[in-house]
Specification:
268 residues, alpha/beta, Rossmann fold, 11 helices, globular, 43% helix
Length: 268
Amino acid sequence: MEVGAHRLYYYAAGTRGQGDPIILLHGFPTSSHLWSDLVALLPAGHRIVVTDLLGFGRSDLGDGADLSIKGHADRTIGLLDTLGITQGCLVGHHLGASIAATIAARAPHRVRHLALLHPLGGDVTLAGTFAVLRAFLPLVRVVPTSLLRRPIRAELTRWFSDPIRARVSVDQYLAAWQKPARWRQFLRQLAALNAADMIECTRLLSTLTMPVAIVASDDDPAVPSVALNRVREALPGATLDIIRGVRHFSPEESPERIADVVARLLCS
C-alpha cells in the first residue's frame, strides 16, 4: 500500500462484523511474523490488519524517511486512512507499543482500545546487545556484518523461552537483514531510537482515556523492570497481565493468552 513516498506491506484477516478493526504493530527488530500464530485466535467479527513497519519485513527500506516513534506513528495513521479505518483497537509489541501509544495520544478519536505488549518506558529504548550496538554505532558501521550476526542471534535467542521456536523465528528475523541495504536500514533504526522520544511517549501515556491493557512477562531480557514500572505509573487504571513461562515474545510463545487479553479488552 502506498503511504506517502513509501510502500508499507500489510495483510488483512479476520471476519468483518460490528467489531472495531484490530491493528497489530510489531516491535524492534522483528516483523509481522511476530503475529503469525495469534491472528487466527483473535475474536470473530473483527477485521484484523497486520503490517510491517517501514524498513522491516516486506515494507520499503525507507531511505531518508523519519524512523522515529512519531514517524512510524504518522505512517501508520496514513495506512489506516488509506484502508478507510477511522477507529480501531491498536495492539503493539515493544517498539510497536510505543508507536500505538503515540497514535492513541495524538489522535485519541482513532483508538477505542489499546493493548501494550512488553512496552518500554522512561528513558529506556534498547537493552542488551542492541543497546551496546547503538552506543558504539560509529564503530559498528564499519565492522563486517558477519562478525555481528552471532551476538545478535544470541541476544534474540535469549528473548525466547522455547529454543525450538527461537531457532525458527530468529532465522526469520535475521534473514531480513542479510542484504547490505537492509543492514544499513537496521543501523538507521538503531540511531533513530532515542531516550528523549521515549520519555515523551511515556509522558503522553498519562493523557490516555481509552481502556488500556498492559502485558508483560516475569522474565523479559528486553524490557527492564524499571521501564515497565514507568509505564504502569503513567497508566494506573490499565489492566496488567503478567505471563509466566515466557520471555519477550509472548505473541509467539503464548498466543492464546494474548488473544484472551485482547478479547477482554474489547469488552471493556
